[in-house]
Amino acid sequence: MSGLLDTALSLATASMPVLPLRAGKVPFGNCRRCADNACGGRPNMKSPGPCACPEPCHAWAAATTDPNIIESGVWRRAWVQATAVAYHPGGAGLTVVDLDNADAIAWARRTLPATQTVPTTRGEHWIYLGVMQSANGVRPGVDIKSAMAYARWLGPGTGTMTALPEAVRALAVSKPAPAGPALPAAAVPAPVGGGECRHRTPVFLERGIAMAEQRITGASEAVHTTVYRTFLAVLSTHGRCGCLTETHIARLFTAAQAKGESARHCIDAWANARTRLGL
Known about the structure:
The chain is of the alpha+beta class. 36% of the residues lie in helices and 14% in strands.
C-alpha cells in the first residue's frame, strides 16, 4: 500500500487528480449509499453535486488532489486492496492517446506530433497538453482518455509534452473505424444472434457502439439504469444477427465499469436485456 499511496500523494502535489484501481485495472465500485447513483452522483470534478461520500466512489469522478482525502481512513482501506494508481487526465488538463498495439503506435508516429510517451503493457500512452471529450475505439487499437475518464499511472515517460493537436480532436468526431482486438477488463458473455446481418456497412455498428459508450460515460445519475437501457438498445438493434462480437461487448462493459459498475452488474444487466428481448 505505501508505494501506491506515496505515488498518489506525489501526483496530487503535482495537481494530478488520483484514484485507486483494483484488480482488473478498474475503479472501486460505489458504496451501498451510492449504489445506482442514489446519492445523485458526482457529475464533474469542479461541481461534485450532492454526493459527499468519503469513499472512493463514482470511478473517475472520485479522483482528487486533496491529501486529506487520499490519506483518509476509508481511502487507506482501498489502497490496501488497490493494484495501481490512476489519474483523471481531463482534471489535470491533459489528454492521453492510448495506443494498444504496434500497428497503432506505427500509425501515431506517422500521423501525430511527438509528445511525452509512456510505455504500457501492450503499447504506449502519448500525452498531450489540453482537454477534450474521451472516446474509445476511434481507430483500431486507439482510445482517447481525457475528460470524464481515467488512465493508469505508469510513470513519467520520456519526451516533451506538446499541445493537443487538431488531428487528435478530430478523431473523436470522425466516423469510427472498425475496432481492433479488444482487451476486456472482465469476462464477457458470448455474442448473441447468428442470423444474417441486415446492416449494409460495419460503420453502422461501430457508430452504435461508440454512441452507447458515450451514453454510459456521460451518465451523471442512475448509472445502473442507464447501463441496462443502453445494453437493451444495443441488443434490440444488433442482437438478432451475428455482428456483435466479444470485442463490442467488452467495450460496453469497460465503459460501465469505469462508471463504478461491477462486472457482476454488467453480466446481470446484459442477461436481463437479452431475456426481455427474448434472445
